[in-house]
Design a protein that fits this description.
The chain is mostly beta strands and about 190 residues long. Helix content is about 10%, strand content about 40%. Strands 1-2-3-4-7-8-6-5 form an eight-stranded mixed beta barrel. The protein has a three-stranded antiparallel β-sheet with strand order 9-10-11, covered by helices on one side. Helix 1 links the parallel strand 2 and strand 3.
């Protein structure tokens, strides 16, 4: 077991097995190729099209969420940007060209195994910025210092605690980042 996948919309939660064999695919979903879980690259996961495994992934839509959690309990939320069917011989979905992004690919077959259903998802840019910002400004508040600190970061919700010069402590929600969301490049969809 190298982690866990959760697809909230489908009420699917499965352990991810490291080895893809006939036996392991009957048990759960498996890593096909890619980096370690939640690392930069294309983490590819295969699963049978049984209802309790990947049987309903074809009903997912763009912007639906998928959560991967590693063995240390660290989770990353991914957002679906493309769903399509392709030939079993088409392995382009396994490409590791991700422009330095964390990406996941879910793979299952259609009834009769004549096609493959591919679901592509990427870590949203806002989550990536929040994570980087959290790592860069996280500090510890002490009684004799005025500082900002992120004390709770889970997905894209976190709190900033500010202690002013008078010792008053205030909490605010997610900070505003100087970014124009309209100018963020969108992932290209395959048809």
């Amino acid at each position: 077991i190298i982690g866990k996948i959760k697809i909230p919309k489908l009420n699917v939660e499965k352990y991810i097995l490291n080895e893809t064999t006939t036996k392991s695919l009957k048990t759960s979903v498996t890593k096909v190729c890619g980096p370690e879980i939640n690392k930069i690259g294309n983490f590819c996961i295969a699963g049978h099209n049984y209802n309790k495994i990947f049987g309903k992934i074809k009903t997912l839509k763009n912007n639906d969420k998928i959560i991967l959690t590693d063995v240390y309990g660290d989770s990353t939320i991914y957002e679906i940007y493309n769903i399509y069917k392709t030939s079993p011989k088409d392995v382009s979905c396994l490409s590791q060209e991700t422009n330095s992004e964390k990406e996941i690919t879910l793979i299952t077959c259609t009834a009769g195994a004549t096609k493959r259903v591919i679901v592509k998802a990427v870590e949203p840019v806002f989550n990536k910025l929040c994570t980087e910002k959290a790592k860069s400004i996280a500090t510890i508040i002490t009684n004799d210092e005025t500082t900002n600190a992120i004390i709770d970061y889970k997905y894209s919700d976190f709190i900033i605690i500010h202690k002013d010069d008078n010792g008053n402590i205030t909490e605010t929600g997610s900070p505003n980042f100087p970014i124009n969301i309209d100018k963020i490049p969108k992932k290209e969809q395959k048809t």
